[in-house]
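Researcher: Next sequence.
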Amino acid sequence: MKKHPIKKKSLVIVCAIFALAAIAFGIMAHILGGKLDSQQMAERWRGENELEFSQVSCYIPVDEKINLQQIYSFRTEIVKKLDEAALEDQNVDTLFADAWSTTGRVNVASGLGKGEAAVIAVGGRFFDFHPIRLMSGSYFGEGDLMKDRVLLDEELAWLLFGGTELDGMEMTVNGQPFVVAGVIEREQDFASKKAYTAGMGLYMSYEAFSNLQSASAGGDAQTAADGGAAAQTTAEAGASCYEFVMAEPVDGYALSLAKEKFPIGHGEILENTHRYGFGRMIKLIGQFGSRSMQALGVAYPYWENAARCIEDWYGLCLFMALLFAVLPVIMIIVNVVRYLKRGKDKLEDDIIPRLKDGAEEAIRVRQRRHWEKKHGKHES
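Model: Next structure:
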């Protein structure tokens, strides 16, 4: 029975719509995969280097925070492994970078206002991993001799000073004097907005925060305010997040090295570079429901929660893309099979008989010519 042409045309239109929807969801997933700067450190750090690079994040449980000595020991292991990989001809500073952080709450005050604020205490090249947009001033870094500079977010800047052009202004944190290095704008992507729930806050150096912790625990407050070496040995805040990027001579090398050498305890180690890769996202789709269950005792920083939010939306878009692609793919397969069958039938019913008839006719012609040639010569 012959198919109605209108029905066939409608099916083609539906398949075209489904194909466009699949493409649209695929594009949305691709856009989401490049949304967060915090997940792109390997690409930024690699620059023009021909080597591949990998970014890895280590999240330590709340009751198992690590100290600077452990971090520096791991750094030494990294350098040693890079040397063993015959990469010593390149400057190690270009092959490896790291950062660490922890969170807390502090009391802040200036001549105009005061309040309680969230603090993210950072070390290493934190602002290379997290290039938060500056509204004014500059970042502070690991090379700063004094550890008394802080970055305020816009909300806290307005509370304390009534503006955002504040570099060089003085304030106190837990009663100790600090200087404003600059003012930052919180990330504006939807995932970071959802993930950051701590309210107004600031960034300060890990050492300075450790000194504040020491002072609040009954140490020498003045020494803590000055960032002296004595205070650094009395107490340490303990890092809850450690991140590093390194050259990867072999695929998976950085992740395996972290699992082998980093003192993660009962924490979690993630490879960021390919976290939005097709294979990993398919795996996450398969873990729908169970992936949300977390029993490690890890309090993720907001940027990791944002990355996980993106994973959820990416997975949804990828699932929808695959779902909408099913009908067009099935139709393509059905039509390919149909055309192959038609081609087979045509080959058996038309082409092969023609070829056979042609071959037989050619044989007859050749035989006739041979006969004529033979009898003609005989008669002559």
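Model: The longest strand covers residues 96-109. The first helix runs from residue 5 to 33.
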